[in-house]
Automatic annotation (TrEMBL):
Protein name (database record): Chloramphenicol-sensitive protein RarD
Membrane-related topology note: Multi-pass membrane protein
Domain EamA positions: 8-144, 154-287
TM segment ranges: 9-27, 39-61, 73-92, 104-121, 128-145, 151-167, 179-201, 213-232, 239-260, 272-291
């Protein structure tokens, strides 16, 4: 893989995860709007943005080429469902003042990716990885015991985005970022409209609950969705999973700082202990990945 291509991919990844890290701050504009209704507006706006970008870039031919592949189209439909679940859990967490739990989900995501690699790619865990997964599970258990409830928002965020990342990595070589994003958002549209309809039937239309700020914040959700997802897809095509694993810590770090020190969400001792165990597991995984990456990089010149 060429050095310029790798560097470009790394900057795409840094941009995407930094962007996702500040999304909880942006969503404060939409407070008061029903979470399920907001998801519907987000998907509608994303579909509009996707087709506008396809038209502007004359990407109809690339989109048609992807659609002719049943394998790629089916994978992207699954990715659309996975990202819809991720968005829903994330929105509900942020709008219910559980930003820290969403950050927990993204901290857990590398561990979920390791487990998914074992289940679906046939990889075998090394001893360090077993310890890391065990520490992560122990951290969640400590929070469950301390809080008396399962952090389902965080776990849903972690598993859904882990599945999404796995799918995107597998189709990244044959699907360009914009075509993939377009198919994913269209696939998510029917389910999101059902959720939106149920929410409006139960609570009425709430999109204007926060005045003009909420309306504009909702209207721009298509761009807020499209920009980091396109950057992430571009990164996944250019860099290794190792590099992605390191950059993805940016989003939960930013959202954790926002939840703990700006939103002032409660951080009792058991939550600190739980987060500390998860962070320790990430240090182990990162150290192991970095060591393997360095050894592989040194071995290539000798092999050549």
């Amino acid at each position: 893989m060429s050095e310029p291509r790798t560097t470009t991919g790394l900057w795409y990844a840094i941009f995407a995860y930094t962007f996702w890290g500040v999304v909880p701050i942006y969503l404060q504009l939409t407070r008061g709007i029903d979470g399920f209704e907001l998801i519907g507006w987000r998907v509608i706006a994303s579909v509009v943005v996707a087709f506008a970008l396809v038209a502007a870039t004359r990407g109809w031919g690339r989109l048609a080429a992807v659609l002719r592949s049943r394998r790629d189209t089916g994978s992207l439909v699954l990715a659309g469902f996975a990202v819809l679940v991720n968005w829903t859990a994330f929105f509900l967490g942020v709008l219910s003042d559980r930003v820290l739990e969403t950050s927990l989900g993204y901290f857990l995501n590398p561990l979920v990716s390791v487990v998914l690699a074992v289940l679906f790619l046939g990889e075998r865990l090394r001893p360090v990885q077993w310890v890391a997964v065990g520490l992560g599970a122990l951290g969640v258990l400590v929070m469950v015991i301390g809080y008396g409830e399962v952090p389902w928002i965080g776990l849903t965020v972690a598993v859904s985005f882990g599945i999404y990342g796995l799918i995107k990595k597998r189709v990244g070589g044959s699907v360009d970022a914009l075509s993939g994003f377009t198919i994913e958002t269209v696939a998510a549209l029917p389910a999101s409209l059902v959720m939106m309809g149920v929410a409006i039937a139960a609570n009425g239309l709430t999109v204007g609950a926060n005045g003009a700020a909420g309306i504009w914040g909702t209207a721009l959700l298509g761009l807020v969705t499209a920009i980091p997802l396109l950057a992430f897809a571009s990164a996944a095509r250019r860099i290794s999973l190792t590099a992605l694993a390191f950059t993805q810590y940016l989003a939960p770090i930013i959202s954790f700082l926002f939840g703990a020190f700006v939103m002032l969400e409660p951080m009792p001792l058991e939550r600190w202990i739980g987060f500390a165990l998860v962070w320790a597991s990430l240090v182990l995984v990162s150290t192991d990945l970095l060591g393997r990456h360095i050894r592989g990089h040194r071995a290539r010149p000798r092999a050549a």
